[in-house]
């Protein structure tokens, strides 16, 4: 099942989101739990933000990381130096593992990019043993990502297509309060709990903030890359003005909130 996330280059993704995924990985692991000796599946591993944090959190026996994007898989494999970690291409909605194979299945910042996210939850449940844990986290695009909403809102004020895409961005799968909890309960997971995880996204300057979007990374980057030169210049200027907010260019810090949910396989 293809992801709706657009990736051009691993380095661009790192600047856009990978660095923040790494910051979110630790509180997500604390919420999801991981114990010594466990076999853990990382669904939608990207460049390895969660994958490489797991062995640092516990003496796991194995981490299997899968992602649909060959760009991500190649980059994560290139970075891997731990023999306990296996990285391969895979489909979140059709995992190639037997039932009950893992102690935990985790998905960090991926389910909202899976068009049939419920299937992803069902597959994670299928491959986890009874008593094991399924957990996932997604950004709260509507109310918890002011740094990213600032871009979308600025461009939506200028362009009808940007307004349409903003609506899609804000209401991707699993993003509404309680939505993941309902999806987990629909799969008969027990002890289901949903919470919020918070980090901050800190930028050195406007270029640090805007460059990966300008290079075409992510859904907004894809939109910006498709603008004609005049509209592109207007977009660059408008987003810069929003970032600077009447002050000289320089560091800015934005809160970022993710919904997180976990449940136990009966």
Please characterize this protein's 3D structure.
By secondary structure, the protein is α/β, with parallel strands linked by helices. It has a single domain (10-264), classed as Rossmann fold (3-Layer(aba) Sandwich). The chain is built from 10 helices and 7 strands. Strand 1, helix 2 (54-57) and strand 2 form a beta-alpha-beta unit. Helix 1 (10-32) packs across helix 8, helix 5 runs antiparallel to helix 6 and helix 5 (146-156) crosses helix 10 (229-244). The mean pLDDT is 94. One of its GO terms (molecular function) is S-adenosylmethionine-dependent methyltransferase activity. This is Ubiquinone/menaquinone biosynthesis C-methylase UbiE.
Shape type: globular
Radius of gyration, CA atoms, in whole angstroms: 19 Å
Which CATH architecture would you pick? Answer: 3-Layer(aba) Sandwich
Give the terminus-to-terminus CA distance. 27 Å
Low-confidence sequence ranges? none
Helix content range: 40-55%
């Amino acid at each position: 099942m293809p992801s709706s996330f657009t990736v051009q280059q691993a380095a661009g993704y790192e600047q856009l989101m990978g660095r923040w995924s790494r910051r979110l990985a630790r509180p997500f692991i604390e919420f999801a739990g991981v114990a010594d000796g466990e076999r853990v599946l990382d669904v939608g591993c990207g460049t390895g933000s969660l994958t490489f944090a797991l062995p640092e959190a516990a003496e796991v026996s194995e981490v299997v990381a899968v992602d649909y994007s060959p760009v991500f898989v190649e980059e994560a494999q290139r970075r891997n130096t731990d023999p306990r970690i296996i990285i391969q291409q895979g489909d979140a909605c059709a995992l190639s593992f037997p039932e009950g194979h893992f102690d935990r299945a985790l998905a960090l910042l991926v389910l909202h990019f899976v068009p049939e996210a419920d299937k992803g939850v069902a597959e994670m449940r299928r491959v986890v043993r009874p008593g094991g844990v399924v957990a996932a986290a997604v950004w709260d695009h509507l109310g918890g990502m002011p740094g990213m909403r600032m871009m979308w809102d600025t461009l939506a004020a200028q362009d009808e297509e940007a307004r349409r895409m903003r609506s899609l961005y804000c209401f991707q799968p699993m993003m509404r309060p309680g939505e993941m909890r309902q999806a987990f309960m629909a799969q008969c997971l027990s002890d289901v709990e949903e919470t919020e995880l918070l980090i901050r996204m800190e930028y050195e300057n406007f270029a640090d903030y805007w460059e990966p979007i300008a290079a075409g990374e992510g859904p907004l980057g894809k939109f910006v890359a498709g603008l004609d030169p005049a509209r592109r210049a207007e977009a660059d200027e408008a987003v810069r003005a929003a970032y600077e907010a009447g002050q000289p260019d320089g560091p800015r810090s934005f809160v970022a909130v993710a919904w997180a949910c976990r449940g136990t396989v009966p």
